[in-house]
Amino acid sequence: MRALIVSDIHSNLEALEAVIADANERGGFDTVWCLGDSVGYGPDPEACLDLLRSFPLVAVAGNHDRAALDVRESADFNNAAAFAADWTARRLGQDYREFLGGLPEVTRAGEFTLVHGSLRSPLREYLLNEEAAASTFGRLTTSYCLVGHSHMPFLCLENREGPLFVQFTEDEVFPLDPRRWIANPGSVGQPRDYDPRPSYALFIKDVGDPAGTLERHRVEYDRAATQEKMRQAGLPQSLIDRLNYGV
Ligand code: ZN
Question: How far is the CA of 237 from the centre of ligand 1 (A)?
Fold first, then answer.
């Protein structure tokens, strides 16, 4: 069993294609687990949803997915994000709106619970500190939880002394043990950890393997092509520029 774990694709088709190609080179995947914010910011909302939906898919909604359907959901967005949400909303056909509208806030895939933000606040909370992690562990009914939203890759282990954040080091294999974990694979389409390369994770569980492993990888992609599309679409310059820096 091999799952490709992606989050915060944000309508960046070149980034998503590069991630899928890289995952295929590493042995492929049977299913895609998507942690939300598939649209918003970038120039290819429908094409990203088409590509995602061409695979067996388990997905949850992100705040940008909701904002593309209802302008009230972008009330707390900055100007550039709100502009992009409105731009996205005007480009999504009915089928795509129905798909996004049907996404749950929380779902389950085997021993994993999938949510965009946190189990305390599925669409809004950035799970980045021990208090937030403890709150999600308190609500978690499976062994593992996958989150996105912050665009910051991390692993967090449930420890006797409290949640322990550890580096989700690139290209390292993390065996999942009986303890409980929260993982963020980082962002495919708009990384914010000062590395502009798309980030994603793989969950791999072989027959007879009790828990399986998680690993995280990064890829190069044709950033200039995405940025040129954004320019032609009239999307804000700040959103184009930030892709250069991973912020
Ligand atoms: Zn996001």
Answer: 18
